[in-house]
């Protein structure tokens, strides 16, 4: 069964839109002109096919193209290549929808944990998850572990590395992962809680495999991945691994350019919802409305919807709005997003280190109020 | 020594531009508000510093920020995270310059081969390189090997996989790499030539290390990498490996969104020149002016300049314009780009399979004409 991608196409009229859609069908697959395509399997199956095309607004058309699972193969990187590899470079083409179809749904099962699995792992059957962030960059591993202990002792559901903690000299990946995992385990032992530490995957390309195993052995409770920098394939690789058995949180760094242009790139919901989920993320971080990034409420809700829709791909996942979150905003956020949300708590929590427990408790109260 | 990044910033006036630059200095490093930054090393070194700021045009400012090498660490992915991780998501911020400084220049030495090294490897001391592309997707490994043999016999300098050849069932990575390497070796033995086959790196994340070694053992002459999908870290990893000792060609797929917006993203020269070179690419593919992509002559020349400037980072590399190239255009391209260029030849070459040798010979004559 073929999979399909819906594109928004800038064109003066339907005939031009159809020409452009036919161009996409070639560009994303065979990458040769129509008269050069070999007859048979390649012409009949490999070349993309226009399933539907119609006007959306003045100068804007919407075209759904179907592709063969053979084009995508078994790697999420190659699937993204078919969805938007070369077309990302052309003007006036935006990805606004994706449907895997049965064949790719089986090949790309998506999140290992999903919302229910992460809730079970964190011992939080309902209500928003509270996720304080370990930072700033430049702190040593011991200082980060001390912070993590405070966060976990205060009842955080997840404690995550800032996405800027890589493998720097001030807090090398392995030292950090070991010390923070131990600090969170100690807090859990004392409180009876199940706070999970998500380590930011780092290291040079050929160190990452070893670092994944090291992190799992050190007892991390999940992994943070930046797919814009390390590739969506790393998310797929972790989600597929029963022996690691770790949930994945994805971070949007270096992906912002995909959502800057109205008429090109990838829509917010597809980029931060559908594609993260397709790759296997259990939690997708994105910039919340009202913070220091420019996302609108509608864009954030589109992301949350794509993360949680029962239609897939794969299990529903947590949307995780971040950027300028604080207990003051928790009630409004709960009203906007509902229950199944993982809230990042960043700089606001670090402003008063002696009040970390109070702040997290205050946030918990607001999120748990019916 | 600190490294520096120059941003174009949308702002109403200099005061606002300065505020935004101060925001970038925090966002790209500590990611906490200024009053939360710990005094000492983190405040003094880790937080970005504004080196220079000034007006560029109405509503546009240019700010150069310096960062500590400690922020970047030793991984190109984390360096890109500092350059543009979260700032990619904010409105009106564009990366238009990068200077590594001595510390990062030593950590990130760039291309292993560069222009001179690739020329030596291909036995082409001067003149443009001719690089036919193996496609379309859907052909089997034997058919691709037959094409590669024809290209190599005709005197191609490099024969490269199309970027859409991954690890699909029709031509699995290892089978394809083995058969094409053998076909090119056979042609070289017959002609006395030194055509190099560049295989497109594919496979699931945890198969890639093994596939690199497999490809080297099979006798490939270089590797094609899609950093937008597999990460710039993979380029760094290959370039750093003396035992592989293979040149890297990078492909722009999935990077197009970075150059779609006038006031955000990354400038053409920095994205397809400087950053590819920094990561370690020897040849950078980008869409040529006049093809089916919308790049202007000025944008293409900016890329070529960034690829070849003696100022670094690292050795000068080949710009490789592609998309709709043919012998008819070769003279104009030679006039525009000069000598040190790798020309992709795609669909036009496949239109007349019986004339492949003539077409490549015609292209060679034009490129070699003084």
Automatic annotation (TrEMBL), chains A, B:
Gene Ontology terms: biological process: carbon fixation
Database matches in InterPro entries: RuBisCO, RuBisCO_lsu_C, RuBisCO_lsu_C_sf, RuBisCO_lsu_N_sf
Domain Ribulose bisphosphate carboxylase large subunit C-terminal: start-end pairs: 123-282
Molecular functions per Gene Ontology: magnesium ion binding; ribulose-bisphosphate carboxylase activity
One Pfam family it belongs to: RuBisCO_large
Protein name per UniProt: Ribulose-1,5-bisphosphate carboxylase/oxygenase large subunit
């Amino acid at each position: 069964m073929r999979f399909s991608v819906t594109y928004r196409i800038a064109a003066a009229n339907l005939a031009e839109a159809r020409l452009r859609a036919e161009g996409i069908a070639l560009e994303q697959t065979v990458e040769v002109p129509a008269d050069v395509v070999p007859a048979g399997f390649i012409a009949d199956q490999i070349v993309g096919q226009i399933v539907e095309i119609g006007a959306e607004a003045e100068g804007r058309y919407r075209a759904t193209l179907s592709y063969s699972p053979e084009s995508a193969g078994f790697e999420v990187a190659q699937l993204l290549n078919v969805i938007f590899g070369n077309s990302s470079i052309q003007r006036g083409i935006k990805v606004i929808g994706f449907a895997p179809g049965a064949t790719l749904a089986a090949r790309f099962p998506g999140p290992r944990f999903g919302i229910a699995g992460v809730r079970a792992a964190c011992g939080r059957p309902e209500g928003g998850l509270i996720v304080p962030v370990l930072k700033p960059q430049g702190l040593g591993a011991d200082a980060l572990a001390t912070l993590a202990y405070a966060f976990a002792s205060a009842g955080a559901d997840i404690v995550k590395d800032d996405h800027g903690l890589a493998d720097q000299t001030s807090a090398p990946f392995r030292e950090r992962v070991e010390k923070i995992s131990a600090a969170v385990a100690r807090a859990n032992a004392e409180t009876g809680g199940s706070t999970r530490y998500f380590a930011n995957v780092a290291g040079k390309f050929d160190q990452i495999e070893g670092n994944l195993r090291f992190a799992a052995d050190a007892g991390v409770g999940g992994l943070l991945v930046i797919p814009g920098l390390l590739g969506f394939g790393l998310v797929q690789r972790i989600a597929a691994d029963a022996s690691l058995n770790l949930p994945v949180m994805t971070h949007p760094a270096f992906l912002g350019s995909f959502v800057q242009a109205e008429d090109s790139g990838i829509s917010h919901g597809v980029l931060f919802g559908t594609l993260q989920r397709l790759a296997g993320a259990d939690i997708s971080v994105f910039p919340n409305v009202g913070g220091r990034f420019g996302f609108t409420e509608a864009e954030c809700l589109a992301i949350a919807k794509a993360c949680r829709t029962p239609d897939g791909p794969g299990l529903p996942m947590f949307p995780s709005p971040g950027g300028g979150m604080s207990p003051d905003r928790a009630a409004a956020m709960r009203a906007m997003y509902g229950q199944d949300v993982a809230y990042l708590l960043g700089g606001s929590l670090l402003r008063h280190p002696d009040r970390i427990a109070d702040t997290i408790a205050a946030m918990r109260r607001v999120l748990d109020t019916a």
